[in-house]
Write a structure and sequence with these properties.
The chain has about 160 residues and is mainly β. It has one domain: Methylamine Dehydrogenase, Chain H, CATH 2.130.10. The chain is built from one helix and twelve strands; from the N terminus they run E-E-E-E-E-E-E-E-E-E-E-E-H. It has one helix at about 150, and strands at about 10-15, 20-25, 30-35, 40-45, 60, 65-70, 75-80, 90-95, 100, 110-115, 120-125, 130-140. The chain has a four-stranded antiparallel sheet with strand order 1-2-3-4, with no helix packed on it. A four-stranded antiparallel sheet has the order 5-6-7-8, with no helix packed on it. Strands 9-10-11-12 form a four-stranded antiparallel sheet, with no helix packed on it. The longest helix is centred in the C-terminal third of the chain and has 5 residues, at about 150.
Length: about 160
């Protein structure tokens, strides 16, 4: 067991695909922290508002770079972050706050729900090459599901 001192108590987090960096947020903060697990130090701050749901985030290659995307429990948006510079490259407006985001390495699309609010029976389909919403799929009580195989095989492009 090891301890790493952080700027605040992290209550939600995401590991990068190589499990070298941890991206974390605290409920009382307006930014995210990137902690390098090898050096045990904070290497970047990320401008994140609302309440990002990092644990449900996903990664993929976008224009030759690895990006991380997370939806938001309080605000209707998805934040897309460049994983080299740790800068926000786009915020995709959604029809309400969401909870689950899913994709797969072999899919050109990502899906996210609108968990809260009046549009909670819509799913957004996002083109990962353009970072645009290309379709709204109406569904009855959509719910994010975990794929155990993807998790235990550390499949890239889905949350672990």
């Amino acid at each position: 067991m090891r301890r790493i001192k952080t700027d605040d108590y992290l209550n939600d987090f995401f590991f990068d695909p190589d499990y070298i960096n941890l991206i974390g947020t605290a409920q009382n903060s307006h930014n995210g922290q990137v902690i390098n697990l090898d050096t045990k130090k904070k290497v970047a701050s990320i401008a994140l508002t609302g309440m990002p749901h990092l644990g449900s985030g996903i990664t993929w290659n976008y224009q030759g770079k690895q990006v991380f995307a997370s939806l938001n429990i309080k605000e209707g948006k998805i934040t897309v972050i460049d994983m080299e510079t740790w800068q926000v490259i786009k915020e995709i407006k959604t029809e309400g706050p969401g909870f689950f985001m899913r994709s797969h390495t072999n899919s050109p699309y990502a899906w996210t729900d609108v968990f809260f609010g009046p549009n909670n029976e819509k799913v957004h389909v996002i083109d990962k090459s353009t970072l645009e919403i290309v379709k709204l799929i109406p569904m009855k009580k959509p719910s994010g599901k975990y794929n155990v195989f993807n998790k235990i095989s550390y499949e890239k492009g889905t949350s672990h």
